[in-house]
Design goal:
With 45 residues, this protein is an all-alpha fold. The chain contains 1 helix and no strands. It has one domain. Helix content is 87%, strand content 0%. Keywords: Membrane, Plasmid, Transmembrane, Transmembrane helix.
Length: 45
């Protein structure tokens, strides 16, 4: 029971880290897209 709980807790933390980093990359990509669109007047996104 304790091992299963620990494993599930670790998995939840792992999943949260993946989601957070994915969201950060997505946001950075959006900002980069917006910035380049403003500079070059071209929307390649």
């Amino acid at each position: 029971m304790v091992i299963t709980y620990s494993l599930s807790e670790t998995f939840n933390m792992f999943l949260r880290e993946i989601i957070a980093s994915g969201l950060a990359v997505f946001c950075a990509w959006c900002v980069l897209c917006l910035f380049s669109a403003l500079l070059n007047k071209s929307n390649f996104c």
